[in-house]
Amino acid sequence: MRITTNAILRNYNKNLSTSMKNLDTMRNRVMTQRKYMSTAEDPSSALRATSLERKYAKNNDYLDTVDDIQSHQNAQEDAAMQISNIALVLAKQYGIEGLNGTNITEETRRTYADAWKGAQQSMLLSLNATYGDEYVFGGSDAKNCPFSLETVNGKQVLKYRGVDVTEGDPKALEQLSKDSHFIDLGFGLEVNDGTPPDEQYNIDPATAFNTSLPGINLVGYGKDADSDSKNMVVLAGQIAEELAKPAGDFDYERYRTLLNKFEDGRNDLLSEVTILGTQTEFLTTTKERLENNKIQIAEDYDNVVNVDMAEAIMDFSWAQYVYNASLKVGNNILTPSFIDFMN
Fold it and tell me: Across residues 267-282, what is the average pLDDT?
């Protein structure tokens, strides 16, 4: 087969262009540290990178949400501990000292009554604690003040979101105590259609985190078998009223009964504080998991998009060597022919 000079030149130009293209590609990889510059170069890697970018952004959103919930939870825990500490002083100090009966005077009892009233107001302030512009014990209604203490016909009435915590509808109070506010933290949120007659959507509690803590779960609600209030704030007011009575009207047994019921409420409060501590640990574990996910996603993205610099520099050096060799070959591409030896 006869090989013409034009054929040799065409092949040489084609191969030289290929060498130049490879050199340019390797040069760009070293300078940009990316395996590809456009989706067309590597469609599968580009698709994988896009998916990882979405996961990374969503994971960061979950991390920000966990940080915010942790701060909200800390505000709840601080306020609950304040109430618990106040209740401890009332039950173990003022309450027991007030049980001394004939060993204290009417004036001393009134002093204790003032202490109980002051502590009652302090508990109320803690129950209306805020984080930012939200009330931490308002359940799903965090924009409105949850608790209010009113005097109706000379009697103190404590209301939670407009419902009397003692005399209010038991069903309404029970519903308020179960009020929830779920936040998606990356557990695979599942929303199910509500069944009639409730046509609203229901969230699977196992797939989201409930940030709601109704304040009545801390201090109690409703009435017991003796028709006494189960709410600690109301009981504190009743104890104060009993202590403020004149010596002849002071009912020692009634006072002791109310004090025991207040102590029962304090024990229930401690159980709620323990649950809060468990949730705090859960949030800490969740944050650690999300931080690990963030590192793993970043590593996966790096493997898909970014080059190994040592390998990229080696490939660039080889491409440069090939290009230089191609140029040298060009100097000798036109070999001597038969005509060169003719006279």
Answer: 93
